[in-house]
């Protein structure tokens, strides 16, 4: 059943979001489309709780453009369980809108365990093969104190391991590219004489990096000499 509801009435429960985060740039693109008069399809909402199942970016774009008191078309659906809600969220997000990234797919596979969904079921909903699903689980998931989590590009080498809280905290802040990318960026900046020596925060960061390297590289050097 489709009806008009206030944006402020919608509940954004990230437990049912198949993506890692709401993409601000994609929301901006929808804002421009709405300004141009493009009609967007209804969002999907759980009828009993008003939790969002599909349409997070459309909601964010509408909120930015018209505010929380504005109304939006919503398809109110009834679900037998929270597991069914999450399955529908995956199916809808995988079938239209911004494509799910590999990180998003791994996120769905990790969350599926919370809802006791079979890996094969999730793979079908994501429109991927079991081989790809197994690869994502092997290469992108680790165990945190609170359960499975998705690893970023610079922490992917920790896949399959049980993480410390420090590693979990770093993964939240980590970038999506391999560690060598960031290391090479610093090296290139120094070799290319492109450090902003007038920036106090830059200098402070480089000093801290230098101190950490002196401490952390000592054990590595000792092992290398013994080898």
UniProtKB/TrEMBL annotation:
InterPro entries: ParB/Sulfiredoxin_sf (IPR036086). This is Uncharacterized protein. It comes from marine sediment metagenome. The lineage of its organism: unclassified sequences, metagenomes, ecological metagenomes.
